[in-house]
Amino acid sequence: MAKRLSISTSAGLDPRTEAQKIKVPSGRMARYLKSTLFPKIKHLVEDLAHRGRSVHAVDEQIRFVREQYLPFLEFDVAKEMTNEKAEFAKIKEALLLLRDPENQLPADIAKKADDLYRRFDAMAWTAKLPTTASLRTERSSTGGYPPEDHPIWGTQGIMHGIVMARGESGRPLYELDDRFTRRDAEVYGHNGLRPGAWFPRQEFVSKAYEDTDKDEGNTIYYSAEGAHDRHSSRKADVKGNRALRASISSRLPVRVFRNAKGGGRFAPPCGIRYDGLYEVVGKENRVNAQGGLYERYELHRIEDMDQPDLDDIVRTSPTPQEQANFARIQEGY
Description:
By secondary structure, the chain is of the alpha+beta class. The chain folds into three domains: about 5-10 and about 30-120; about 130-180, no CATH class; about 200-320, Roll (PUA domain-like), CATH 2.30.280.10. The chain contains nine helices and ten strands. The protein has helices spanning about 30-50, 55-75, 85-90, 90-100, 105-120, 130-140, 240-250, 310-315, 320-325, and strands at about 5, 160-165, 170-175, 200, 205, 215, 220-225, 255-260, 270-285, 295-300. A hairpin with a 5-residue loop joins β9 (about 270-285) and β10 (about 295-300). The longest helix has 22 residues, at about 30-50. It comes from Gnomoniopsis smithogilvyi. GO terms for molecular function: ubiquitin protein ligase activity. Its main location: nucleus. This is YDG domain-containing protein.
C-alpha cells in the first residue's frame, strides 16, 4: 500500500541571514551531514525523549534545526541531491525523526520536515527543489502549458495535469498544472478510479522492507511509514496508523497503489498502478531489527465484480504503449 502525498509546489525565498547559513568545505557536504549534523538530530530527539538536559539546551537545538538545519537541506543540499547522497548522509533518517509525532518536535518543525521528505521523495531524491515562481518563469520560456493534442502531455496523454520546466542544470522539474484541481483523497471507495489504472508520476511513495512488509498480492502485510527505522519501544501514533486502525473499526476498505519503486512481482515496471480496494482485517505489534516497536497490518483484497483479477491487472497494466510513452516523458513538449 502506498502513501498519499500533498506535494508542496512552492519553496519560498531563502529566509536565512549570512550568520545562519551553514558553511561546509567544498566536497565535504555528504560527510558533514552524516558525521556532524545527523548526530545533532539524534541527540535532540533523545533529549526530548528523556528530558536529560536543560530546557535552555534543548531550545538551542530546536532553534538550530528550525533556523539552520532545515533551510540548509532546502536551499543548499537540494542543489546537489542524489539518492546515494541522501542514503549516505542519513538525510532520510533525519527527516523521519523530525517529522515523527512521537518525538514531540514543535509542530512547525515536524511539518517542515514532512514537507521536505515528501518533496525530496517525489523528485526521487535527485532534483533541485523548484519554486512556483521559477517554474512559471521557465514554463513561459519553454512554451507555456502543454498543447492539448500532445500525445504524452495533452488532454489524452499519460502526463495530463502535469507541467514541465527545466532547472539551471537542464534537469526536468515537474509541477501540478494549476489549471486543474486535485482529486480529494479523503474519500472511501474507488474515488472515481478504475482498478488497473496506471499513472506515470510517482505521487504516491512507499518502499517495501523485507523485515517489516510482505506483499502476497491478494494479501498484504503492511507496516506504517518509518517502521523499518524506528528505535523507540513506544507505540507510534503516525497518521498512517490512525487511518488503518479506523478502517479496521469501520470495515471500510482502503485503496492500494503499487509502484515500481516498491519492487516485487506485483509491482508495475514503471510508474504507479491502482490495484483496487483492500479490507484491513487486523494488526499486530512487532519489533524491528533496531528494537523499535511498530504496527503491522493485514490487508485482504476484496473480490467482487467491480475489481478485475489482480493477476490480470499485473499482466495488462501498464500497456506497452504506456511504457513507451513513459520512456519519452523527459523529452517534454
